[in-house]
Design brief:
This protein has 94 residues and is mostly helical. Helix content is 34%, strand content 4%. The chain binds iron/sulfur cluster (2 copies). The site of one iron/sulfur cluster has 9 residues, from helix 1 and helix 3.
Length: 94
Amino acid sequence: MSMNHHKNKSFPCDKCGLCCRNIRGHELYLHLDRGDGVCCHFDENNNLCAIYDERPDICNIDTMYRKFFSQSMTLPEYYVLNIEACKKLQGIEQ
Ligand code: SF4
Ligand code: SF4
């Protein structure tokens, strides 16, 4: 009914860091690859993005939704697609 319905639900990232450690092969992330498929902004000491507040739009799920997907699906639907991608990454690494 309104956008407010989803206002307080943020993406359930468990901070595994796998997305930032596996950017190889993704054209949009090429410029971030430090050479081994890991993003040059990824901090391996704490498993977090070192530039999180200024991270590129392509790393910001809510920005990506707003800019490119809000016309074609709901935010929960977009989250589900992304959760599937996370699970796929997590399955590969197990
Ligand atoms: S792969 Fe998914 S769950 Fe893991 S850090 Fe990235 S967004 Fe979060
Ligand atoms: S900029 Fe940050 S969020 Fe984006 S891939 Fe690199 S470490 Fe991850």
